[in-house]
Amino acid sequence: MRALVDTTVWSLIFRRKETEQSDAAKRLELLLLHDSALIIGAVRQEVLSGISDTLVYEKLRIELQRFSDMPVNTEDYELAANFSNICRRNGIQGSNVDFLICAIAHRNSMPIFTTDKDFDLYAKYLPIRLM
Fold it and tell me: Which listed CATH number (2.40.50.90, 3.40.50.1010, 3.40.140.10, 3.30.1330.10) goes with 1-131?
């Protein structure tokens, strides 16, 4: 099963040292083994942001180049804005990137793989699946 992987999960495997103890990291490794982990450009940017060590940044940038960005189109941005509006009407705030992830996952009929509990809130009002 293919899954759109959120920043929180990519960070587990590429930016943190405790990956061997994390269930999410093990599940990501399995997705990677089956070529089923997908990324979008905005998530790539989030994973790479905030790395002050140039060598660490370059190593991670090169590592992430193994994965092609899923295409994002105008309809995805419009749906992301609609999802944001739906959640906001229900008292839930979220980031633009989170709602873009929701829109792309919905359009492609795939689950979102995340450890971010905000997505549990979004799933109450949006037609998304989480794994």
Answer: 3.40.50.1010
